[in-house]
Specification:
The chain is of the alpha/beta class. Helices cover 40% and strands 23% of the residues. Helix 1 runs antiparallel to helix 12 and helix 9 crosses helix 11. The structure holds S-adenosylmethionine and zinc ion.
Length: 334
């Protein structure tokens, strides 16, 4: 944790100022272990392996804990980076471009292994504060250690230990895994200052009826399985997806005549998009779908309501691969 993170913190219990109480180990600009304390209610929060911890997983409600547990494990296995992540991230937050985040104070809700944290930091954000509830923060911290403008915090998106000072908040692939996605979204944007902006990407209800019908029941079993076993089992559907996307979807979609035909293929937009990814990422995608205990599929109508509820203006809501929604908007000035 860098000292400059203190500028953004606030006690999740009472909103009071957070001070650095003790430092036990430092390395360069990072405080590796120590303690933070609230100046108002005196509650203290440990800094462990470079990450301030505002949520103790065993104390988090079961539904959230199980999700965080699964993703924490997942990101520790799939901790690799890939150059394709940058374009994928831009596709998820469109119409936001790298220039938009330059100089801004940015909040990321549910950072996983920190692949997007690194990009936003590299695009010249003044600071990015990346929050995740799970042990994925260990990977995100390792990915951003010593990077002046990148901060990783372990906390629950519903109880953010942050002041309302952010110019821009985004959340990619997280809200639909929360027990109440809309409340998670509102909690995230509650830390954006008046007139700031927000982006969110969620699974769509439209075109995903087959997942709800066939994959959800499987997920109720697989999310309770031993992780190591599921990791290997997921290789079977992943191998099927990998070979089909590489042998059928990718070549067909590249040719002019083939592309016409490809439009009739099952789930073409998504599977064609996925076909650019290597084996490791396709395995990750399948594993993630099977390991997550909670996944909501959100209709455009409901997603629009979220943005109306926060009184956002200039809202842009768009299909992504015809199976998910991405939204961007400006918060009111008052
Ligand atoms: C599918 S991953 C997406 C991670 C990252 N946004 C990405 O796209 O690489 C969902 C992430 O949300 C985190 N998460 C789940 N529930 C959370 C909560 N209540 N508060 C904060 N993060 C949470 C998980 O730990 C996980 O890392
Ligand atoms: Zn307090």
């Amino acid at each position: 944790m860098k000292r400059s993170l203190l500028n953004y913190l606030a006690c999740p219990a009472c909103g009071g100022q957070i001070n650095l109480a003790t430092i036990s180990a430092e390395e360069g600009i990072e405080i590796l272990s120590g303690e933070l304390q609230c100046a108002s209610c005196a509650k203290s929060f440990p800094i462990v392996r470079g990450v301030p911890r505002f949520a103790e997983l065993p104390e988090v409600e079961e539904e959230k804990r199980a999700t965080a547990d699964s993703f924490g494990w997942s990101w520790q296995q799939f901790s690799h980076d890939d150059e394709r992540y940058e374009q994928q991230f831009l596709d998820w937050i469109a119409p936001v471009r790298p220039e938009f985040v330059a100089g801004k104070i940015v909040l990321e809700g549910g950072c996983g292994k920190g692949r997007h944290t690194q990009r936003v930091s590299g695009w010249g954000a003044k600071d990015i504060v990346a929050v995740d509830l799970s042990a994925a923060v260990e990977v995100a911290f390792a990915a951003t250690q010593g990077v002046e403008n990148a901060h990783v915090v372990q906390a629950d998106i519903y109880h953010l230990p942050l002041q309302r000072v952010f110019d821009y908040a985004f959340s990619v692939g997280v809200l639909h895994h929360l027990p109440n996605p809309r409340e998670g979204f509102k909690s995230l944007v509650s830390r954006v200052k008046p007139g700031g902006h927000a982006s969110a990407w969620v699974y769509g209800a439209e075109n995903n009826e087959w997942i709800v019908r066939f994959v959800n029941p499987v997920r109720t079993i697989t999310s309770r399985m031993g992780r190591r076993l599921l990791y290997h089992l997921a290789k079977i559907p992943a191998a099927l997806m990998y070979s089909t996307t590489k042998i059928v979807y990718r070549p067909l979609n590249r040719g002019r005549r083939g592309a016409k035909l490809a439009r009739h293929l099952f789930y073409n937009d998504y599977l064609n998009y996925i076909s650019q990814f290597n084996w490791r990422d396709q395995h990750l995608i399948v594993f993630d779908h099977l390991v997550a205990p909670t996944a909501f599929y959100i209709s455009r109508e409901e997603f629009e309501e979220w943005w109306r509820e926060i009184r956002a203006t200039g809202v842009v809501i768009d299909w992504h691969n015809q199976n998910s929604w991405r939204g961007f908007g400006k918060l009111p000035e008052d």
